[in-house]
Amino acid sequence: MAVGKTIDVVVAVVVNASNEVLVSFRHASLHQGNLWEFPGGKIEPGESVKSALHRELMEELGLVIRQCFPLQSINYKYPDKSVRLHVWRITEWTGVARGLEGQKIAWHPVSELDSLDFPAANAPIVKILQLPALIAVTPIVASLPELESVIDGLLRQGITLIQLRQPQLSAASYLHWFQCTSKLCEAQRVSLMFNGELRDFSASGAIGYHANSQRLLALDHRPVAAEILFSTSCHSLEELQHAAALSADFATLSPVAVTYKYPVDKILGWPMFRELTSQVSIPVYALGGLCRDDLVVARSHGAQGICGISLFQP
Questions:
Q1: Could you tell me the domains of the chain?
Q2: CA quadruple 71, 72, 73, 75: dihedral, nearest 10
Q3: pLDDT for the residue 33
Q4: For residue range 113-132, what is the model confidence (pLDDT) as tens digits?
């Protein structure tokens, strides 16, 4: 069957304080029926994405949205139709969720979403939701044993995603250090992101590739396969938009707060962080001058979580 016009659909990701996400079970008679899905529906002609989001959550669940942020845009082709999903994170709402259209609903732990059967187009949403709230970046160190000590300290803190950043090293030395420390992480089932020369990525065995802002702007397409994590460092709307155009899985945006690396006039602050992240549809982590207690305020301003170096060090 020929695939016609792309259908625009709004999707709501509603996560409660227990890190459970609200899901609905599609009626058997619907396209992709008898599968779990995230709430939402078709955007009507002339309707804005945000208006559709508010309408759908009220009609389907009886929820009134107080605060929301774009999370990701997903294009997917089924054999019989093409859809464009406009995925938004709902951070504040009022009301008690009910299946007002006769659908079964449930709050399901984010960590266990893989156990549910979703439409194929929803798979990238599950991938995003399972990103951690905290990402550690390694400080610059003088030796491999010192780096291994740093990694061990992060593992003891329960960090599950670490970006190995050592810009002082040659490409060959960085690859060697990465391969050595990745063994420590693999033993603890912790993901280590590669932040080195792209040409060395395949030899690293890494689960993900991180591009600094300079490498980001030199890219004209996504540098790794869809199943491999791809993240970027951003400091401006231009860089965030470029990361989104490359289908990055997530980005960091800095500096949010005062830090020794940047002059005061370069500090974004939370209002600007919210403004910039609201204009792109990829998950964004706040970075720069933060502490762990900033996680709540970060998420209230549209962040996926927080990322940093010093907040994880003694």
A1: 7-113 (3.90.79.10), 134-312 (3.20.20.70)
A2: -140
A3: 66
A4: 989 999 888 888 888 888 99
